[in-house]
Write a structure and sequence with these properties.
By secondary structure, the protein is an alpha/beta fold. Helices cover 33% and strands 20% of the residues.
Amino acid sequence: MAAKAEAIVIGAGIGGLASAIRLSLKGYQVTVFEAASAAGGKLAEISDNGFRFDAGPSLFTMPQYIDELFRLAGKDPVAYFRYQKLDEVCRYFYEDGLKLTAWADRDKLIAEFSTRTGTSASDIARFLDKSAKIYNITHRVFLERSLHKVSSYLHMDTLRSMMQFGGIDAFRTQNEANESFFADPRLVQLFNRYATYNGSDPYQAPATLNVIPHFENHFGAYFPEGGMYSIVRALEQLATELGTRLRYNEAVSEIVLKKNKVAGVSTGTGFHRAEAVISNLDIWFTYRKLLKNTPAPEKLLSQQRSSSALIFYWGINRQFDTTGLHNIFFSADYRAEFEAIWNDGRITADPTVYVNISSKLLPADAPPGSENWFVMINVPAANGQDWEMLIAEARKNIITKLNRLLGVRLEKHIVYEQVLDPLTIESRTGSYQGSLYGNSSNNRFAAFLRHSNFSRRIGGLYFCGGSVHPGGGIPLALLSAKIATDCI
């Protein structure tokens, strides 16, 4: 029996694990090299002092992309991974006292937003319908296929999408579009927020990003049993069962080439041969660190990076009735918040604060009578700022804001704390400047300006993960793995 062809995946993030699974199903003997001691990349986990936190992505949408991997392997997804659909997607808190709940049920959401803001139900429905239209035009072309192969443009559905290009609203900013839908600035702010889902600025990014609400408001938001990190555990188990070799604490130092073709990789244990290599490492570091003496696509690598995050993991020694699983506490001046990030490289004194509390659904994530608070604000990518000072100021401002909107003295209840900042994100996950999504989407052509999922110059080299096409976040990272492996 002939030996299997060898394939190597660099990085055991979500995209890397999905790539390993798909390559195994194609008949490759796959080895994954991961510099860290565990899989997951940005989707990590913290367990300490009786508290458990999902350290990275906290919102789960499009679970069918996870289920698909198990079904391709002839497995029952439920045997590995379970999740529940949320009735309540998010709670929104405004400085003027308005509180909104985004319900999963469309009619209930429309009634909530209409009743509490005085906006007509038809205007809200019109916006949701527009979001659906953008998705229907774009998903097969921009999300599920390579934008860098001629064959992708020869499909009939691609041609149909191209004929409807005007419908994706690429020539207005997201804010301009949302102001045309809603007179109430609070709803404009709510839907502008979705630009942050890929680290962008709604005052610069195209209104095409209004596709993102459709993922939540149509397909739904979910919560995995066991928390977000259970996604990693399930994919890790499936990959292992399919014969993937997972080698942790072993960083790749070089992608070795021979005559413009991949020969393998080098690690601390030596050279490892491969016919195909998929890098799940940020595209910037892939070129700068792993491809020695190889010309880099400088125009792509020099693009504006996405925003980053500053996250406080707080163990809270009490419980709150006013908060849910997902909570947003909006800034009073949203435009000023984004100007601070994108124009000044700093953090506003009044940031929008996201609080995720998984113990609302998983009581074991916190000691009895306590809660685990994942508290995040959007911040600029690391570019020489004094992060020690910025973190201290942001912590004070966040606590002041939450105290004001919740009517508490939160500092009295914080009994545990860890902090994740852009510099730490870069060092732990290999994300250049700590940017969470590679390049920003503050450009109407951003979808076409991401790096492809394959190399035109180097045979056998492919790319997946949030820094390449189609973008960041769990669903798109999973799709990047599909596109990359389909290219092989």
